[in-house]
């Protein structure tokens, strides 16, 4: 990014009118300096930054892009409905159709409520669980992300103790710590939140341990608390159902967002019969929650989910990427760990506490037109083809070369010094 690039100019202007220049998960402050902040457009599996450079995008908007940016079928459904009406005085028939389609897809659920962001859905899940049980305590895993409301935001600024009250923490996949948290909650347990797999930032991902998932279900059955699977990030990339259906553990509530309308703004809370009454009793709403156009987009997205082999294809592409990277890393003499499901992998290098190797690798890929992430899980989309994966692998081979030649002399990554300071 040259000093005169449009991206630099926009960043300077943003400094004046946007607090911190940029906020939230799309701020590039903790990415290598050459990562662009602003983009011009997206099409299929590719994005273009404001300086006209094209990237094969392995972040997929942090999840929402499942069937390709500007997907013609989904966007046509969206635009058609926009012409008829979007934000109206009441919902359209699409709301009922969408609830039916989602209930038909998610085996644990018999109802759905729609909202806008993943945080809306997780916060509603918490409220439903408390309304249902008339209890306060919630168990969730340390480091797991469930959104940006005061009860769950990872940053402490502006959050007060009472926002965080009645929360107990366990270690993901650690049965003993889950049992200890349940014991501590005693007869006050309202719910247990579970990520479908461990997808925390900065650390290796982990598949859910069956014993852990079953223990969570068992504690809820024993105490009457509700089990919540937060599928906002992983939903539809692991299964055409709640992600824990794959391991045979059914939650009472599940939360959905990101890709259910391929990037159009809609999220959902789904639940089983046991929680229906409580869900009907809480007051939740928003000016834009009943918009018809995102519902039209969601219906078209779900049709593609049902009628295409997208999941088998992205899984095969993920395996091709995984195997190809492992082979090339080994040939370059580099120890890279690839963790998490193949459609949502995270790459980390051994002996890389401040991620200087990861930054070097990611920057070398970016320079070659491949957008990856050095510390967050990535995402595959159905607009990718084998040729795209092969292009990424060619770029990775070159990037591994850059890394192995430069590994000994890489500068520390000051902005990630907090990682080596023991925060992990
Ligand atoms: N839960 C999980 C697992 C997520 O990954 C996210 C978003 N990254 C959220 C909840 C919150 O979603 P949103 O940013 O749409 O509020």
TrEMBL record:
Domain of life: Bacteria
Family according to the record: Belongs to the class-III pyridoxal-phosphate-dependent aminotransferase family.
Pfam families: Aminotran_3
GO molecular function: pyridoxal phosphate binding; transaminase activity
Entry-linked InterPro entries: Aminotrans_3, Aminotrans_3_PPA_site, PyrdxlP-dep_Trfase, PyrdxlP-dep_Trfase_major, PyrdxlP-dep_Trfase_small
Protein name per UniProt: Glutamate-1-semialdehyde 2,1-aminomutase
Keywords: Pyridoxal phosphate
Cofactors required: pyridoxal 5'-phosphate
């Amino acid at each position: 990014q040259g000093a005169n690039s449009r991206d630099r100019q926009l960043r300077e202007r943003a400094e004046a009118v946007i607090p911190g220049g940029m906020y939230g998960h799309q701020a590039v402050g903790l990415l290598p300096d050459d990562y662009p902040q602003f983009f011009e457009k997206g099409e299929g599996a590719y994005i273009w930054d404001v300086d006209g450079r094209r990237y094969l995008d392995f972040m997929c908007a942090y999840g929402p892009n499942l069937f390709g940016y500007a997907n013609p079928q989904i966007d046509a459904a969206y635009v058609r409905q926009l012409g008829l009406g979007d934000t109206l005085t009441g919902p359209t028939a699409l709301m009922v159709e969408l609830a039916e389609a989602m209930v038909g897809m998610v085996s644990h659920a018999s109802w759905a409520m729609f909202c806008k962001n993943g945080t809306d859905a997780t916060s509603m899940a918490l409220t439903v669980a408390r309304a249902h049980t008339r209890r306060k305590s919630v168990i969730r895993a340390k480091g797991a992300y469930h959104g940006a409301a005061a009860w769950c935001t990872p940053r402490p600024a502006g959050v007060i103790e009472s926002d965080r009250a009645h929360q107990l923490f366990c270690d993901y996949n650690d049965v003993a710590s889950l049992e200890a948290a349940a014991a501590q909650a005693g007869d006050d347990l309202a719910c247990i939140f579970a990520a479908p797999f461990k997808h925390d930032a900065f650390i290796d991902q982990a598949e859910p341990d069956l014993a852990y998932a079953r223990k969570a279900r068992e504690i809820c059955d024993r105490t009457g608390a509700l089990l919540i699977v937060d599928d906002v990030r992983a939903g539809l990339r692991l299964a055409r159902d709640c992600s824990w259906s794959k391991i045979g553990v059914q939650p009472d509530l599940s939360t959905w967002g990101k890709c259910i309308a391929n990037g159009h703004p809609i999220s959902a809370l789904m639940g089983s019969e046991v929680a229906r009454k409580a869900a009907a009793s809480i007051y939740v709403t928003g000016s834009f929650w009943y918009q018809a156009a995102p519902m039209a987009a969601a219906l078209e997205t779900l049709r593609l989910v049902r009628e295409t082999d997208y999941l088998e294809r992205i899984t095969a592409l993920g395996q091709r990427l995984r195997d190809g990277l492992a082979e090339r890393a080994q040939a370059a003499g580099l120890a890279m760990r690839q963790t998490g499901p193949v459609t949502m992998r995270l790459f980390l290098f051994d002996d890389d506490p401040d991620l200087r190797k990861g930054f070097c690798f990611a920057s070398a890929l970016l320079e070659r037109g491949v957008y990856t992430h050095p510390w967050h899980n990535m995402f595959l989309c159905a607009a990718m083809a084998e040729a795209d994966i092969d292009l990424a692998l060619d770029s990775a081979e070159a990037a591994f070369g850059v890394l192995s030649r430069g590994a000994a002399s890489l500068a520390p990554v000051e902005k990630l010094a907090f990682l080596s300071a023991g925060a992990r």
